[in-house]
Amino acid sequence: MNKLFFPAILSVCLMYASCTSNTNNQTTIDEASTPTDEVLLDTSHTSQNSLDWNGTYKGVIPCADCPGIATTVVLNADETFTYTAEYQDRNTKVEDTGEIMWHDHGSTVHLHGKELDTKYKVGENRLIQLDQEGKEIDGPNKDLYNLIKQ
To answer: Which terminal residue of the chain, N or C, has fewer Cβ atoms less than 10 Å from its own Cβ?
Structure first.
């Protein structure tokens, strides 16, 4: 009987130790997965100071009553712009110049001239036209509102 008693006690002790060990490991895993560091927004690197944003951007923007608007935006290093929009199948052309205003911590350019008042999000080799509220245009044609750097 003593021969059976010792292995039984040993088995019970091992089972207890393994259960206790799992409980402690679970607590350790939960504590490790709980975020304790605050995520900080990097405002030192923006489109304005990190990208080669100056240059010529072109694209054909959708038009409600014509095939499209051939648009050219030139952003100059001295923070001025030139804007040209030619309505296809029409005899209409809009040209404007002015100074660039930076918004949204340097990620958006605001082109405000005599006739023009529009915003573009500055991306890697592209300008993304924003709506009147300054938000990206959404929907199936959203990629048509991109001007590509030439």
So the answer is: N
pLDDT at 129 over 90: yes
Question: CA 120 to CA 13: how far, in whole Å?
Answer: 69
Contacts of 123 (CB under 8 A, 6+ apart): 47, 51
CATH of domain 47-149: 2.40.128.640
Taking CA atoms, 30 is separated from 1, 16, 18, 21, 76, in Å, by 44, 22, 18, 14, 53
DSSP state of 39: P
Q: What long-range pairs does 49-56 form, CB within 8 A, spacing at least 24?
A: 49/106, 51/122, 51/123, 51/124, 53/109, 53/122, 55/149, 55/150, 56/149, 56/150
Domain boundaries, the chain: 1-33, 47-149
Dist. CA 95–CA 77, nearest whole Å: 19
pLDDT digits (tens, 9 = 90+) for 84-100: 999 999 999 999 999 99
Residue 52: its pLDDT value, please? 79
